[in-house]
Amino acid sequence: MPIINRIADFHADMTTWRRDLHAHPELGFELPRTSAKVAEKLREFGVDEVVTGIAKTGVVGVIRGRNAQNGRAIGLRADMDALPILEETGAPYASLNPGIMHACGHDGHTTMLLGAARYLAETRNFDGTVYVIFQPAEEGEGGGRVMVEEGLFERFPMSQVFGLHNWPGVPAGTFMWRNGPIMAATGEIAITVTGHGAHGAKPNEGIDPILVAAHIVTGLQSIVARNMEPTEAGVVTIGTISAGHADNVIPERAVMRGTARWFNPAVGDVLEAGVKRIATGIAAGFGAEAEVLFRRNYPATVNDEEATMHTVRAAKTIAGEAKVIPMERPTMGAEDFSYMLNVKQGSYIMLGTGSAPNDPGLHHPLYDFNDETLPVGASYWATLAEQLLKA
């Protein structure tokens, strides 16, 4: 694949950076070592400014090209945080922090953007300014939202912003793109069912919250099947149910937690109303009570058509026409890059990292980023910047 020669020259360096980040994963907004390493590298590369402390541990590097006073500027964003998963890869650079690992490839995302920053700072073959944005807390805590709220786009004025995610199960070096929605909005569901405790041998003397919870789980599936427009997409999943401590006791409460996903905001309204109506109604029918929390988290990630065409052009420059393919349908996964796209024109693209048999996929204790794709991603970022800000 025709990656940029200069970036290929420091492929080994990028592999070292990535594996160091992998061995020292951190969670959420608490990324002191990770953000310090990123800032250290940016300064080493000679970027013009390194700004830290946005969204607590976020970092922004400012790289000015030729004629930087012309006001043209774009942003390139990578996420830095890991996941609360116990790593099982057995790699020599496996996590040194028990119960925390880079199971989503953010170590690779960070490294690819660092590689692009090194190249762009060396060459300056563009007119305007490139902001390299390193974001904390993508995994469920909304670091993207916090960066926007803390003035990311006011402090670093840019016309467009772009994101990238690695995608296992797709041949390494293949890009996938999509106009419009590419990742879903997400909602958090928590339902507490309160019944009446009793001896397991005397169920008639109690109200069984576990039985009620079981009926609620079944009933919730009717929302997508019977309340939504069939051509729309939506998901309601209950992932955990916890209740009781003994096998011969009917407990007082059962707690259910899950997730909802959608693209169209109107579908989110249907899901939220349906979860509340069904849970409370079924509970009341059994003589129990249900307290329902439906909290909307990330909005849908929606790509701008014009910006997406820029990403496709850059990807084809690096990978060739045959390895840049449209996604047939969006994924129901979620991304807080959506908060940035709600404010600025931009686009999000996927980079295949391999399709080996039994690939564990993202968020799995056996997952590891494919280092062979590091120069591909870095070359894509650099090419996108040089094409959009053509000298």
Distance between the termini: 25 Å
Widest sheet, order of strands: 1-2-4-3-5-16-6-15
Helix count, DSSP H or I runs of 4 or more residues: 11
Beta-strand share of residues: 25-35%
- Please report the first level of CATH classification, the CATH class of the largest domain: Alpha Beta
Uncertain runs: none
Largest sheet: 8 strands, mixed
CATH homologous superfamily descriptor of the largest domain: Zn peptidases
Helix/strand structural class: alpha/beta
CATH fold group of the largest domain: Aminopeptidase
Order of helices and strands: HHHEEEHEHHEEEEEHEEEHEEHEHEH
Total E-strand runs: 16
Helical residue percent?
25-40%
Shape: elongated
| The CATH architecture of the largest domain | 3-Layer(aba) Sandwich
Query: What is the residue-averaged pLDDT?
Result: 97
Radius of gyration: 23 Å
Tally of individual domains: 2
Structure, described:
The protein is 35% helix and 25% strand. The radius of gyration is 23 Å and the shape is elongated. Strand 1 (49-54) and strand 2 form a beta hairpin. The chain has helices spanning 5-9, 11-23, 32-45, 106-123, 143-149, 152-155, 209-227, 265-285, 305-319, 338-341, 374-388; strands at residues 49-54, 58-64, 73-79, 129-135, 160-167, 175-177, 180-183, 185-194, 198-199, 234-243, 249-250, 253-262, 289-296, 301-303, 324-326, 345-352. The model has no long low-confidence stretch (mean pLDDT 97). The chain is built from eleven helices and 16 strands. It folds into two domains: 5-183 and 300-388, Zn peptidases (Aminopeptidase, 3-Layer(aba) Sandwich), CATH 3.40.630; 185-296, Alpha-Beta Plaits (2-Layer Sandwich). Helix 7 runs antiparallel to helix 8 (265-285) and helix 9 (305-319) crosses helix 11. The protein has an eight-stranded mixed beta sheet with strand order 1-2-4-3-5-16-6-15, with helices on both faces. A four-stranded antiparallel beta sheet has the order 10-12-8-13, with helices on one face. A two-stranded antiparallel ribbon has the order 7-14. The chain is α/β, with parallel strands linked by helices and 391 residues long.
